[in-house]
Amino acid sequence: QHHLSLTGFFNRESVQLADVTALDGPAYWGNAAGSLRYRSRLAGSDAVFTAALSRFTTRLPVGVETPGVADGESWRTRLAADFSRPAGGLRLGYGASYDRQRIDYQAFAVSDSGTTWLARNGVSEALGGYGEVIWEATPSLQVRGGLRANAFLSVSQLRLAPRLSVGLQVSESSTLSFAAGRYHQYLRVPETVLSGSLSAAWPDATVFGERAGGFQERPLAVAAATHFAVGLSHTPRDELRLGMVGFYKQYSGTPEVTGLRSSGIDLWLDWKNGPWAAWAGYSLAWAWTQEEFASTTDRFSARHLLSGGVSAPLPSGVRFDIRLASSRGIPYTPIPTSAAVDAGEGRDQFNVGPTTEDLAREAISGAPEGSYLRLDAMVSRGWTARLFGTEVEFVPYLKLLNALDRRDALFYQFEAGPDVRPRSLEAVPILPVIGIEWRQ
To answer: How far apart are the C-alpha atoms of 135 and 138, rounded to whole Å?
Structure first.
């Protein structure tokens, strides 16, 4: 059998900001993506060939005392071939891929000379190949192991990433899973690259002062992480599913940060009965760094999120969806170690307030701070038609996005100086979104 599918996506959003003279039009951002997938049988294997292309663009204001404009654009191209086939009592999977990313950032002052503050062009290319084996050891035990090799062409590095997972059915309705492995990826620059701490976020960026000239294309950095996860899935009834996953990750290769760790737990519940559906989840995650010979423990950050939703049918084929999310975060905080206290370094020294470096790291890392309670609602209705002999479903919808206990900021701006934390530029309490979804 042969099957060819084409998928496309496009969106563009913009907002007219009052009292912002830096822009010659509205601020905007948008995505475009497309993929072509072909499925077939090849040499006794199930084969899937994929070609995909995506693009993101944005134009935002930055600065107040010195108004400026930041432009951003990123492209990603991916080619992949995946194969699977039975081999005795095993299932084999293997394949290869090519991935290319290109990222351009530029910020310039709004003046007659059009002085450029920052220009950065990053590119990455990677070739990858993998192989995996799935073994049904017993009806209740599945073992899955594999190895992936990535050749990061932009930095001339070859990285190996082994992975292993075990699924054990402990009862008719419960499955226990264990997973461990390692993965590598190119690092993209954080959105807060213009926060004033550019050297820490992107050490080799080209910053323009009064000098003119171009800038050189530089490869993106490659980072790695080792992860361990334990999960439990329970299905007491066909329409009800409960689950829990705990994880631990250890990172390496992250610029300006050493000994980075993260851990957390996720709990969820899904219920579906005919046209009715409901779900709820809770997540708790924290991150920290571990450096030797420091007078304080390294900065620690945590955030928890409670979310839920209901999807219900209304008369005349209309559907109503509502989603609720509540989150609270703890910013990075240094805590004195026992060695520091023994040396006579009192606790008062840790309560003098954040330093410029602390604020810069917080802005760059996106450390969580504050809390929010968010409520989103959507009304939609679908129509089915035949287009060029193919059944197509059109779903127009109306969404209302809201933040209940704070005005949710659309954009943030960053100022040079001792306080480099992002500040709300423009805010709205309710944001209506009208759109149409096309399903084929």
So the answer is: 9
Q: b vs e for 41-65, b when ≥16 Cβ sit within 10 Å of the residue's Cβ?
A: eeeebebbbbebebbebbbbbbbee
Task: Give SS3 for 361.
Answer: helix
DSSP string spanning 316-355? GGEEEEEEEEEEEEEEEEEEE-HHHHHTT--GGGGGS---
pTM of the entire structure? 0.72
Range ranked top by mean pLDDT from 215-219, 347-351, 426-430 = 426-430
Give φ, ψ of 158 to 5 degrees. -115, 125
Question: What pLDDT is attached to residue 427?
Answer: 61
Contact yes or no for 222/152 (Cβ under 8 A): yes
First to last CA, the chain: 20
Is the confidence at residue 166, as pLDDT, over 70?
yes
Count Cβ atoms within 10 A of the Cβ of residue 440 and give its class: 0-12 exposed, 13-18 middle, 19 or more buried: exposed
Q: Give the model's confidence band at 129: pLDDT under 50 very low, under 70 low, under 90 confident, else very high.
A: very high
What Rg value do the Cα atoms of the chain yield, rounded?
25
SS3 (DSSP) at 294: coil
DSSP string across 196-219: S-HHHH-TT-EE-SS-------EE
Residue 351 per-residue DSSP state: G
